[in-house]
Fold this sequence. Notes:
It holds the Pfam family FTA2. Helix content is 36%, strand content 7%. It is mainly alpha-helical and 119 residues long. The chain has one domain (25-119): Transferase(Phosphotransferase), domain 1 (Orthogonal Bundle). Strand 2 (60-61) and strand 3 form a beta hairpin. The longest helix has 13 residues, at 35-47.
Amino acid sequence: LVDSKYQESTIGGLKARAIVKSLASSNSGITSESIENIQNKVLSMNKAGIYNMDIRIVNFCDGLLVDFGSSWTEPHALLAAQSSEAAEEYKLADLVMFDQMVQDEELESCGEVKTIHSM
């Protein structure tokens, strides 16, 4: 339930602010069969200027990324303060973290998940 009076009193008002993880499955949903699709969703999110900055298996429920507490969106003051090269490195963080997650979980792709960055 949403307490609209409380929400109106907070910064951002009635905008969605969180997902309650206790309502979601504790299963990450990340498998060798699903990683290509999940990587494509992360890429789409990045192309839209949304950078999660915390891609880890614990932040997925049923194949969906659910934790955006560390996310950056464009425009972002920290990106703007960087050189263009440094900003591009920040923008690659999700894909590097995705590759590390796949490696850490010892997942093998059934499709064409491409390594973005050498670890």
